[in-house]
Design a protein that fits this description.
Layout: H1 17-34, H2 42-53, H3 59-73, H4 77-90, H5 95-107, H6 111-124, H7 129-141, H8 145-158, H9 163-180
Length: 181
């Protein structure tokens, strides 16, 4: 009996424009909280941002994301790359898919594709502090300390409470000061 007044309406398969606008406004408020050095609300803001970013708006795409994440957790980078390539092919505007695939490429030792995917992440979401930090990590491993330092500093302007990025900035500043002397 589908005409029942108690029947639940079908959930939309894609987020509505209103939902997308609301998510963007929520993110703007969360980034304002995240940018506050110190304080106690940044951790919650970070968690909320990561949660919002991990939702594609499509159950099928979220499943591919989850499968990629599970494969990465199991150490199976090739399976992760397979799932995440399907995700980026079908949802090219979903920054989290590109980011997770960049991690898989990085863990597989494929720095070129990892950097390319990070470029896509940053094109879609310029405030993606995780992508900037990951880019800094890769550039440092490649010996491009100056650009690595720039990436870490840019990440810290968005999210100043990242201990790994803070440590990297200190390490690279010391190293580059010794080279400039």
């Amino acid at each position: 009996m589908t005409d029942s007044p108690l029947a639940e309406p079908a959930a939309p398969s894609e987020p509505t424009t209103q939902a997308q606008v609301q998510a963007r406004e929520d993110l703007d408020l969360l980034f304002a909280e995240l940018a506050q050095p110190g304080g106690e609300t940044w951790a919650r803001a970070e968690s909320d941002i990561l949660r919002i970013w991990s939702r594609s708006g499509s159950a099928a795409m979220d499943l591919l994301y989850k499968r990629g994440e599970t494969a990465l957790d199991a150490g199976d980078t090739m399976a992760a790359i397979g799932h995440l390539t399907a995700l980026t092919d079908h949802a090219p505007d979903f920054a989290a898919g590109w980011y997770l695939r960049s991690i898989a490429f990085y863990l597989d030792g494929d720095f070129g594709p990892a950097i390319a995917d990070l470029g896509e992440v940053l094109r879609l979401e310029p405030r993606h502090f995780g992508a900037l930090t990951q880019l800094g990590t890769i550039l440092e491993e490649l010996g491009d300390d100056r650009n690595a330092l720039k990436a870490f500093r840019q990440s810290l302007t968005i999210h100043p409470n990242q201990q790994d990025a803070q440590d990297a900035v200190q390490r690279l500043e010391r190293k580059l000061q010794g080279m400039d002397a």
